[in-house]
Amino acid sequence: DAAARAGDDGAAKEGCVHGSIRGPGCAIVRSSHNFARETAVAAQPDLLTVAKLAPFLMEPLQRAFTVHERLHEGDAGAFARIAPQIRAICGSGESKVSAELMPRLPALEIVSIMGVGYDGVDVAAAKARGVMVAHTPDVLNDDVADLALALMLNIARRIAQADQYVRQGKWPSGPMPLARKMSGARLGIVGMGRIGQAIADRAKAFGMSIAYTARSAKAGLPYAFHARVADLAAASDFLVCITPGGAATRKLIDAEVLRALGPAGYLVNVARGSVVDEAALIEALHKGTIAGAGLDVFENEPHVPEALRALDNVVLVPHIGSATVQTRHAMAARAFANLEAHFAGRPLPSAVPECR
Ligand code: 8YV
Fold this sequence. Notes:
alpha/beta
């Protein structure tokens, strides 16, 4: 299997990959000026990046691997020559690793995603080829939950509009219209995984009543469960989406759900753009079917329809859920650690559930 194949690698026998972020064993390999070292260096696994990765991930990758930066997007001939050697892929939460790409990489052993979401990776195709898939859960829970609460407060209290009100010199002509109180309101969470629970923890401090929908009720949670998302929407003032993307949740938030949320209800999406029917949302916002929306994710990122950008009852941010220095560094370290563990023949710190 893939781990056993990795065990044949000279570097893996040393129990590390060169240039590891932590890499205690690597110093030994680097400092020994002998044939084994030369062989190990020459045997650096080939890795394909499928996203523009941050320098703090690229640097350790370049020390440990022969990195081919998004080669599949450019020169087809160059990619065809290198493809048979590629043993690893590294990408972001938005990266596509399709069932069409994988057969072109017959030596592929692992896909390491720097993100909790991996809906762009065809995991079934990967598993069928014995390819491991890893992601970076947990380390971003706080940031994404923080942003969900920030968007809720922002749309309810109209912070972005209030900022413009002051900047544009409108204050002397009178106060802003009154906003909506968030504390004590009803929160509906779509997806009660790790981040959903972190959102609920924060909402408790705002005295909100909390309900949720998920594939099934979670044992031990003190929140009301609704099997249908429309029923949850009807019982919510704020509906927050934090469910995985992919086929199972495509356009889960449709016109019916938005009607159920109603003219005093707000939608927040920190999940994936695919979870919301964007055309139906634009219509609902335009007609006042719902009160407003706070959106971190969109159907066709980084392109946001003009019809959405023109609306006054939305707050739009460019997919920044995990975008803090602290969290992105932790995610990069985990994405690298998954690769490092694989090529050292160790269990992965965070394989996706389907590959555990
Ligand atoms: C980032 C994300 O956009 O974790 C995810 O699923 O969507 C984000 O944190 C990105 O993947 C960072 O590389």
